[in-house]
Amino acid sequence: MWRRAFLIGIGSALAMVFVTTLWAASTLPAPPHAKLVQAKEVLVGNQPAHVTQYTTSLPPTEVVQYYSSTLARDGWEAGHGYRDTQVAVQAFNRQSNRGREHVVINTQVVQGRRESLVFVNQWTESPEEIARAATRTDLDRITFNAEGWGEQSVRDIVGVPRYPGARAVSGTEHQRAQTVNYATTDSPEAVVEHYRRVMPLSGWRETSDPALVQMASAVVSGSERTMLFFEDATSSVTLLVQRVPQFDQTMIGVIQMQRVRGVRRATSR
């Protein structure tokens, strides 16, 4: 059960990490009928990784099947994975003269459109790559907590309490933003009620911001979701609460964005 929550958490983390800066695309092939959306270099834990985003007309299961067949010919071995009609995730790895190489393919249906969103994530366990990344201060950081994938600490957001009993499955860090994705077996209603009760006790004020609603809607698809918005004097927090029936889990996405000094968003009650 924890692995299913972890796999869906990968997609949430990757969807939140992309910004407008383009980077060189992955050295892996694009899926059939794909359009390149953007590419970026990030940190997975302390490892630099290539993350490339595509859209394709293929369903998620066919995207993963394509990579399973293609990568097997180049010596990649399949690891953990999950597939259904809406979401498919598959990990691959191999040993090369560069070190231990990893690939994670994450793909999900875009609601309301006949296409899938595909993230191709590739990194190598290499002391040289880690040393190179240590000199970079401009890279977003993605972290995962999952048995069998290597323990990499996902930091809770300071001032935002973790939902009781929830497992941190992934996170991203940027210069002015941090996200953490949690999983719980509790209902979305229980999660929403909890945060509406405890966030004011931590100094947050619930608010409504149309721009944030639009941004969150683009990141998380599906009808069974609730979005909450809070702010204090220096930052804003968006909570995305969504039930994932096929995993019997509720995913909680917490996004904190530091406010640019001297700029305050207009809000309405």
For this entry, give a set of tags.
single chain, alpha+beta, TATA-Binding Protein, 2 domains, 13-stranded mixed beta sheet, globular, disordered N terminus
Characterization of the model:
The chain is an alpha+beta fold. The chain has 2 domains: 20-138, TATA-Binding Protein, CATH 3.30.310; 167-258, 2-Layer Sandwich (TATA-Binding Protein). It is 22% helix and 40% strand. It contains 5 helices and 13 strands. The protein has helices at 2-17, 60-72, 127-134, 188-198, 210-219; strands spanning 34-44, 47-56, 77-83, 87-96, 99-109, 116-125, 141-144, 167-173, 177-184, 205-207, 225-231, 235-244, 249-258. A 13-stranded mixed sheet has the order 3-4-5-6-2-1-7-8-9-13-12-11-10, sandwiched between helices. A hairpin with a 2-residue loop joins strand 1 (34-44) and strand 2 (47-56). Residues 1-8, 14-25, 146-151, 218-223 and 262-269 have low confidence and may be disordered.
SSE run: HEEHEEEEHEEEHEHEEE
Integer tally of domains: 2
Shape label = globular
Q: Provide the residue-averaged pLDDT.
A: 76
Short description:
With 269 residues, the protein is of the alpha+beta class. 22% of the residues lie in helices and 40% in strands. The chain folds into two domains: 20-138, TATA-Binding Protein (2-Layer Sandwich), CATH 3.30.310; 167-258, Kinase associated domain 1, KA1 (TATA-Binding Protein), CATH 3.30.310.
